[in-house]
Amino acid sequence: MKLTQHASVFNHKGLGSSSFTRTQVKKFDYLLGLSMWMLTEERKNELLKQKNVKLTELETLKRKSPSDIWREDLDVL
Length: 77
Known about the structure:
Oligomer: single chain
Radius of gyration: 23 Å
């Protein structure tokens, strides 16, 4: 079924205007471009792990003073 057919079904049932339906459908167009490997549970778990690592890094930075961060940056140079 094409987008215009979906829109006409929504209109027929009184669920919205065709422009509203097209706008809502377009919001999810990016999903069509995703590779299948991005939709696996392993990928989800990997992303959750990365999130936890970044949250830990954030908490570490929050505990440091600006001068501590500055000194660490100077040490790297």
